[in-house]
Amino acid sequence: MKRQINTIILDDEPFAVRLLKDYAEKVSSLNIIYAGSDTYKVLELLKEYTNSLVFIDLQMPELSGIEIMEMRNHSDHNFIITSAYQEYALDAFKYKVIDFLVKPISFQRFYESVEKYLAWQKSFETASNYTAKSRDFYIKAERKIYRIIPEEILYIEGLKDYIRIHTRTDKIIAHENMKDIIKRLPKNKFLRIHRSYIIPSGKIKMLEGNSIYLHGDIRLPIGETYRKAIKAKFN
Fold first, then answer.
1. Which of 9, 134, 193, 201 is the Cys-Cys partner for 35 at CB 3.0 to 4.6 Å?
2. Contact 143/96 with Cβ under 8 angstroms?
3. Nearest to 70 by CA among 96, 103, 90
4. Considering the domain 137-234 in this protein, what is its CATH number?
5. Per-domain residue ranges of the chain
6. What is the distance between the alpha carbons of residues 92 and 156, in angstroms, rounded to a whole number?
7. Percent of the chain scored above 90 by pLDDT?
8. What is the CATH number of domain 5-128?
9. Distances (CA, A) of 226 to 128, 133, 134, 205
């Protein structure tokens, strides 16, 4: 029997809570641990039940859905938004939400959202299997899931709260930071040369002054903080 997914439903409308709970009870892969409107109870549950699936409304009387996601942004919880206000979708997707369900929500749309979550989970299981053999990994970007092959990376560019991964065929923008992405790359094969640039050391063509040239006529600056370490490595 497959492991059930711990599921939380948070909405300030009793009708919406009953409807979503009824939907969730029809999906055998979901295990409802809470369905209600108590935001503070949900915050406590999120500490206890890691890697849970949360259906969350944005408009709440005490803490908004956005505020809760901000508080739990670095956790393993996965959020599906349930809201009557579609204009909030862009802001919501900054928090790596799985889906945005616009009220009124049909069972078909609810089920599709759960399936999307299951596919997302499966992709990371697959990524773990790949990692055991190589260092390929998966990243969520632009509502899609990309397989990243380190050997195909030309360089990675930091864009404040986002990164842009330059490969031979794509420029993938993801809501990640430079500190976290370098941990997912093969050790000793990538260098951070600037607060805004990570490069594959195997693609370095030349060092000139405070610039590094990569194969493919790519020229990138070396940040002042990194100059001493980079030049020592070349020496």
1. 9
2. no
3. 96
4. 2.40.50.1020
5. 5-128, 137-234
6. 25
7. 46
8. 3.40.50.2300
9. 31, 31, 28, 18
Residues whose CB falls within 8 Å of the CB of residue 113, separated by 6 or more in sequence, listed in order: 80, 98, 99, 101
pLDDT (tens digit per residue) in 111-140: 999 998 988 877 655 544 544 445 788 888
Model pLDDT for residues 170-207, shown as the tens digit of each residue: 899 998 899 989 988 988 889 999 999 999 988 998 88
Q: Do domains 5-128 and 137-234 have the same CATH topology?
A: no
| 98 vs 120: CA distance, rounded Å | 8
Residue 145 structure tokens: 């899931």
Q: Give residue for tokens 């001493």.
A: 228
Distant-in-sequence, close-in-space partners of 1: CB < 8 Å, separation ≥ 6: none
Q: How many residues are given for the chain?
A: 235
Place of tokens 């009220």: 103
Q: DSSP per residue over 110-173, as a string? A: HHHHHHHHHHHHHHHHHHHHHHHHS--EEEEETTEEEEE-GGGEEEEEEETTEEEEEESS-EEE
Contact status, residue 60 vs residue 37, Cβ threshold 8 Å: yes
